[in-house]
Amino acid sequence: MSFIIFETQGQVAKITLHRAEKFNSFIREMALELQAALDKANSDNTIRAILLTGNGKAFCAGQDLTEAIDGSGPGIKRIVEEHYNPIVQKIRAIEKPIVCAVNGVAAGAGANIALCCDVVVACESATFIQAFSKIGLIPDSGGTFFLPRLIGFQRASALMMLGEKVSAKDALQMGMVYKVVEDAQLQAAAMELATNLSQMPTKGIGYTKRLLNESLFTTFEKQIAREGEMQVASTKTHDYTEGVNAFLEKRKPLFKGE
Ligand code: T3D
Q1: Using a 6 Å cutoff on CB, does residue 69 contact ligand 1?
Q2: pTM for the complete prediction?
Q3: pLDDT in tens, the chain (258 residues)
């Protein structure tokens, strides 16, 4: 992989967007490599959490606009259908927690990929821009789906139409991100969160993610019925037995993710 760095630390897969000189903007190779990296982290049972971040000053400036207008390039339809849609679908479908460490500007598809991760931590200098309207595009990569659900319809409308830059502090206040930390602390703080998550009951967390996904499309009655089913499934895991026994025996649980 040349535009993505894939590393493991314990049971965490760290995936880094690696095209720093172009603010990690996406070209086709990088989008396909990110998909492959997500697949690799998903299929490896020893990986129990994923950390997504960017190299250099930016998290990701979205689509590389040179490629977007290149007549011999993939073209907008394939860019959306083959690059961004599979990325955000994979992020939501992987039943392992995905932490996103936003290390700088997150614009266009870069912002929306970050926002569909499970736990988003930003550094103080990070910014979020729904840059699409400024170049005559509509927000993609799941932005019109997730942003109104994260921050409310009115704020999402305004940000998507105006394309204004949102500071990390304002993103936190709006509910766009989970935490904001000092720039120098970002990678350590995000890895600590991912490591904690990788040592938790992975199946239960995966079921939680499945239920959160389903909650976006369903009714209250159906959702509580699904909670019942998945709660029964949770009790069939090693980690449920271990968690309860450890509590009763007053010791630290050793979860296996099984
Ligand atoms: O086909 C389709 O287009 C459909 C798909 C759409 C998905 C999308 O993501 S559309 C939105 C695309 N992204 C943008 O419109 C953002 C464009 N970039 C910016 O607005 C600014 O660069 C930033 C606000 C992100 C950062 O501003 P600043 O002043 O801190 O940095 P800069 O100087 O503008 O950029 C630094 C370098 O990165 C620069 O390269 P250079 O001149 O030093 O060689 C710049 O050209 C490059 N860069 C930044 N964003 C992109 C980019 N190069 C190509 N494409 C980019 N999106």
Answers
A1: no
A2: 0.98
A3: 799 999 999 999 999 999 999 999 999 999 999 999 999 999 999 999 999 999 999 999 999 999 999 999 999 999 999 999 999 999 999 999 999 999 999 999 999 999 999 999 999 999 999 999 999 999 999 999 999 999 999 999 999 999 999 999 999 999 999 999 999 999 999 999 999 999 999 999 999 999 999 999 999 999 999 999 999 999 999 999 999 999 999 999 999 999
Place of tokens 């699904």: 226
64 Cα–ligand 1 center, Å: 7
Select from 17, 18, 19, 22 the residue to mutate for testing ligand 1; criterion: most ligand atoms less than 8 Å from CB.
Answer: 22
Residue 107 C-alpha to ligand 1 middle, in angstroms? 8
Ordered DSSP codes for 43-109: H-TT--EEEEEESTT-SB-SB-HHHHT-TTS-HHHHIIIIIIHHHHHHHHH-SS-EEEEE-SEEETH
